[in-house]
Amino acid sequence: MKARKPWLTTIAVSVIAVFLLLPLLNTLMTSLKTTGDINSFPPKFTFAPTLEHYRNVMFAAGYDFTSYFKNSILLSVFTSLFVIVIALPSAYSVIRLGFSSGRLLTLSMALRLFPPIVFAIPYYLMFQYLGLLDTVTGLILINIFLNIPLGLILMVGFLQELPYEIEESAKIDGCNVYQILWKIILPLMAPGIASVAILAFIFSWNDYLFAVIISLNKATPVTLGSTMFITSWGIKWGDISAATVLSILPPLLFTFFAQRYLVSGLSMGAVKG
Amino acid sequence: MKGLLTRCVTLALSLTVVLAGCGSNQDSSTDAGGASGGSEQSGTSKVSMVYWPGPESDAMQKVVDAYNSGQGKTDGVNVEMVLLSRDGTYEKEAAMMSSKSDEVDMYFTASYIIGQHAPSLDALDGKLNTDGYLKSSVDSLRMNNETLAIPMDVSNHFLLYRQDLIDQLLSDSAWKSKYGEVSQKVLGQTLEPKDPKDWTWDDFIAAAAFFSQEYNPDSPTKYGTALQMKNLIFNVMIWDDFLWSSGGSWLDESGKPQLNSDAAKKAMGIYSTIYNGKMTSPNSTVAEYPETQAALQSGNAAFAVQWGAAYDELNDPARSPNIAGKIAVAPIPGEHKTHVHALGVGLNKYAKNKEAALKWMNYLTTKDAMQIYADGGGIPPIAEVLNGLGEKKPVLPLIAEHVDKYGYSTPIIAETQPIMLKLAEDLSGAWAGKDDIGKALEKAQTDVTETLSK
Amino acid sequence: MVYSEKAAKWVLSFPLLLFWVVMVVFPAGYAIYLSLHDVSMGQGMSSFSGFGNYLEILGDADFWHSIGFTLEFALITTVLELVFGFLLALLFNRSFPGKRPLLSMVLLPIMVAPSLMGIMFRLILNENNGVATYFLSLLHIQINLFDPDLVVPLMIVLDIMQWVPFTFLIIYSGLQGVDPGLFEAASVDGASYWRTVLQIILPVIAPIFFIAAFLRGIDAFRTFDVIYVLTNGGPGNVTKTASIYIYEAAFKSGQIGQAASASVIVAVFLLLLIPFFVKRLSK
C-alpha cells in the first residue's frame, strides 16, 4: 500500500531499528576503544578508534580464530544442506503421500520440546563410541538434530500451499514421484528452501551448548572461541566485542545475499488460498 | 535455486580459503608447542591437559612451551593444553567424567569442585612431591587423606582501598568530624577513622557510609564500597569472609550445618545494612568480579573486598587510568579471615598416558616450572617464588603472607559446590533485601542439611 | 516397485527415519534410562532408583518455581513478540525510502549467538561504564534495573530486543502473500484501517501466527543463555528458568539422574501442547 507520508514510516522504522541494534552498536563501539577508554565513566562517545582488539583476536591472543571460523562455516553450511535433504522429501512424503498420517511430524516437532541439555551426556557417550568427539562432523549431526523440527514445520507449511493440480497433471504425463519432486516441487519450493537454509545456517552458527560438550580443541566453533575472553579475572570487553562483531559477519553476509529469498521464501507457507 | 546454492557454497568456500590462508601463516608462528605428526613418530607420547582460559592459561602456556622444548624431549613427552570456555571447562569435564572418558589425560580442577571430581581422579600420594607448596593450598585439594590434584594457582581476598582517600580521612579534621557524624547516624555510635588494617566490621560499615553520597554529599565517591551480590558461588566465597571473620563457618565441629548462628546473622546484617543503606550501588545485585573492578576503576567506590588478582589491574595506568597507583591492600576486617582456594590439575583415572602425564606433573611441581608460571602472570602457591617477584608485583608477597596467616578453606567434601549453590540462591535474595535475613538463613540451614544427607 | 507411491513414501522418509533412529531414539532412551538411575558426575552409573529421581524433583519447590517463572516468561515474551513483530511487519508492508537496508538492519539481532548477546547486554547495562545506565542517569532516572521487582520485566525486554526480529521476519513474510487489494481497501478510509487489519488481514495470516508462536514459544520456554549470563537465575531464584534448573542439577550439582528426570518432566509437560499445534499446522 502507499502511505501518504512515506518518510514518516522511514523515521519510525529507523527509531525501532536503532533500539533493536543498541547492544550491537555498543559492541561495535567498544571493539574500537582502547581498554582505558572502555573502563572510563562517563562512557566516551568520541575516542580515537583502535584496531588493537581485532588484531588481538585474530593473531595475538594465542587462540586460533581462523580455524574457529573455518569450523563454524563448515558446520553451518553442511547443517543447512542436510536439514533440507532430510526435511524436504519427508515433508513431501507426509503431506502428499500421507506417510504415517502425521505422527512422524508430531514426533519430530516434539523433539524441539526437549531441553537440549538432556541430550548432552547421551550424545557425548555415543560420539565417544563412534569416534566423533571433537569433530565438525559430530557437531553437524547434532545441529541437524536441533534444526530438523524447524525445517519440517516450515517445509510442511510451504508444501500445503503448492497447488496440487500441477503435480496431478505431471502424474498424468507419466512422471513418477521422484521426478515430480525433483522437477516440479524443488524449483517451486526454491525460495522456501532457501529460507530454511538461511535459518538453519544462523541457528547452527549460534549454537553454544553442544559446542562446549563435543569440541575439545580441533572442532571449536567461533561462538565458543569468543567466550575464551571471559576469564576468571574479568571479561576482556574489547576483545570479546571484536570477536562478537567478527562472528556476526559470516551469517550477515550470508543473509545479505539471500535476503530476498528469505522473505519471499518464508512467505510461501503463509497464506491459505 | 541452483544459482543461490552455488552462490552460497562459493561464498562459504571462498571464505574458508581466505581464512585458511590466514590460518597457515598464523600456525607457523604460534605452533611452537603444538604436537606434530613428526614427534609422534619419534616415540613421543602426548599428554593433553585441560586448563582454564585467561591469565592462568597464558602463564601455563609458557610452562608447556618450556617443557616441550626442554625436559619434555628427555622425558619423551609432549604436552598439549586444551582450553575450554570458563563455564565450559567444568561442563565438558562433567560430560567426560560421567562417561569415564580417556579423551584427556589431565583434568583441570579446583578446591570447591574437587569433591565432585574425586571419583575420576587418581590419588597422587607417593607419586609426586608437594612439599614446596603452601600447605593450605595442597590441603585444599585433598580429600579422605588423598592428594587428588596439585595446586597451580591460588586465590584469596583482600580489602582493596583507595589510599589517597583514606589518608585524607585520617588527617583532615573536617572529614574526621563528618565521619563521626555519619557513624553516629548509621551505627548509633561516634567512631574515629582508623587505618583499614585495623578495621572491625563496624569501621567497615562506617567508612562505607562516609564515602557514600547518600550520607555525605561531599564524598568524592558515589558509594563507599562495592558488594558482589549476584547469585554465584564465587560471591558466596566472598560472603564467607564476612562469616568466617565474624567468627562463624558453615559447619560446626561435628560437621553439622550452623547457618543460623549469630555469626551468620551478623554477616548477613552487614550486607543488608550496606545494601539497604545505599552504601553500595543498587546494581550490586548483579555484580561479580568485573563489575567490582569497574566500580573501583571508575572512581565510584572507595573500597571493596575483592580477589587478590585484581590488584595488578587496578594499579596499571593503561587499564585503570583514574585510580592507578592509589590502591592499597589490607586484610579482611574483623577476624581477618580470607577464603583460599587453589586451582589445580589432577590425573584422569581412565587416562591412557598416565606415566607420561606423571612425568609432566613431576616437572610442574619443580620450583623452576612454577617460576616460569609466575613470571608469565600466574600465582603459584609457593612462598619462595611469590616473594621473589615482590619488586615487580608487590601483591604477590602479600598473597603469600595472607594465605599463610589468614587463609581458611571451606570444607572439602563432595557437597562443597552444591552447598555453595544453595547458599548463593538462598542468601542472594536476602542480600538484596528481597527476603528476610532470618528466614533466608533458616532456609539455607534446611537446604544445606538436606544436601549433606543425600 | 520403488516408483509406486506406496514405496516412495518410505523411500522419501527414509533419511528422516534413519536420522531418528540414530540421533533421537538412542539419546532419548538413554536420557530416560539415566532418569531412572542414581547417577552422579564421576560415579558413572550406579543403582537403579525407580521413580526416586522423579519424586525428588516433583517434591522440589525450587523446580516448580522455575517452571512457573518459565511459563510466565515464555507466555509474556511470546505474546509481546508476536504483537510487536506484527506491528513492525505492518510498518514494513508500506513502501518507504530506505526499506531494504532497514530490513537488513532489523534482522541483525537474530544473528548474534544468544550466549554472546548476554555478554553484550552485560556490557551495556553495566553500572559503571555501561551506556544504558549513563543515559538513564542523564534523564535523572536512578533505578536498579536488576532490582528483584524489576529484573523480570528487564529480562522480558531483553528477550524482546533480540527476538522481535524473528517473529517480525515470519509475520512479514506472511504479509507478502496477502492480496495488496485488501490493504488498498483499508487505506481509502483511514478509520477503518485497524478494523481491516483485525478482521480481514489477521484471520488470513493466522496460520503463520501459529508457526511463529510455536517456534518462538518453545524457544522462550528453553531460554538459557542471556538470563544465565546476566543474573545466573537470581536474585535468589527470581529468574531461574527450567533450563537453568536442569543445567545446574547436571553440571553444577552433578546430579545427572535428577537432571534427566527433570528434563523428562518438562518434555512431557510440553508434549501436551503438541497436538494443539499439529492440528493447526496440518489442517
From TrEMBL, chain A:
Keyword Lipid metabolism recorded: no
Gene3D superfamilies (UniProt xref): MetI-like
Alphabetical list of SUPFAM superfamilies matching this protein: MetI-like (SSF161098)
InterPro entries, per database record: BP-dep_ABC_trans_perm (IPR050901), MetI-like (IPR000515), MetI-like_sf (IPR035906)
CDD domains: TM_PBP2
Pfam families, alphabetized: BPD_transp_1
A single BP term in Gene Ontology: transmembrane transport
Keywords: Cell membrane, Membrane, Sugar transport, Transmembrane, Transmembrane helix, Transport
Location in the cell: Cell membrane
GO CC annotations on file: plasma membrane
Membrane topology: Multi-pass membrane protein
Main location group: membrane
Listed transmembrane segments: 7-25, 73-92, 104-126, 138-159, 180-202, 208-230, 242-263
Residue span, ABC transmembrane type-1 domain: 69-258
Database matches in PANTHER family: MALTOSE TRANSPORT SYSTEM PERMEASE-RELATED (PTHR32243), MALTOSE_MALTODEXTRIN TRANSPORT SYSTEM PERMEASE PROTEIN MALG (PTHR32243:SF50)
Entry similarity comment: Belongs to the binding-protein-dependent transport system permease family. MalFG subfamily.
Protein name: Carbohydrate ABC transporter permease
Organism: Paenibacillus rhizophilus
TrEMBL record, chain B:
Record region (Disordered): 27-48
Top-level taxon: Bacteria
ATP-binding is among the record's keywords: no
Higher taxonomy: Bacteria, Bacillati, Bacillota, Bacilli, Bacillales
Species annotation: Paenibacillus rhizophilus
Secretion signal, residue range per the UniProt entry: 1-20
Transport as UniProt keyword: yes
Low complexity bias: start-end ranges: 27-45
Pfam families in UniProt: SBP_bac_1
Record key words, sorted: Signal, Transport
Family assignment from sequence similarity: Belongs to the bacterial solute-binding protein 1 family.
SUPFAM superfamilies the UniProt entry points to: Periplasmic binding protein-like II
Protein name in UniProt: Extracellular solute-binding protein
UniProtKB/TrEMBL annotation, chain C:
Presence of keyword Transport: yes
InterPro entries: MetI-like, MetI-like_sf
Signal sequence, start to end: none
Protein name (Swiss-Prot/TrEMBL): Sugar ABC transporter permease
Pfam families: BPD_transp_1
Keywords on record: Cell membrane, Membrane, Transmembrane, Transmembrane helix, Transport
Stored SUPFAM superfamilies: MetI-like
CDD domains: TM_PBP2
Family affiliation: Belongs to the binding-protein-dependent transport system permease family.
UniProt domain ABC transmembrane type-1: residue ranges: 67-277
Compartments, record wording: Cell membrane
Membrane topology: Multi-pass membrane protein
Origin: domain of life: Bacteria
